[in-house]
Amino acid sequence: QALREAGISRVVTIIDQKTRLEVQKPIWEVASSHMARRSFIGNIYKQVKDPNLVGALSGHKEGSKAFARYRTIDDDMKKELIGMLE
């Protein structure tokens, strides 16, 4: 509800759990504290790239399987790594 009250209403695409079809909804209808935590971890990991430091900030223990699922390596990170090798 905080997003709705703040006027944040961009539309996002989600997969409906029952039909498995894509559905568009305002973000305030689908956002959760878990989504915020996952986004925080993913975004900070792109900047810091030290899983131990990010894990310490998010409260995850070293080697946490949940934490490993949260941090993804996207194409921008791959390009940056290749650039470092050149």
TrEMBL record:
GO terms for biological process: DNA integration; DNA recombination. The keyword Signal does not apply. Keywords: DNA recombination. The keyword Membrane does not apply. SUPFAM superfamilies: DNA breaking-rejoining enzymes (SSF56349). GO terms for molecular function: DNA binding. This is Tyrosine recombinase XerC. It comes from termite gut metagenome.
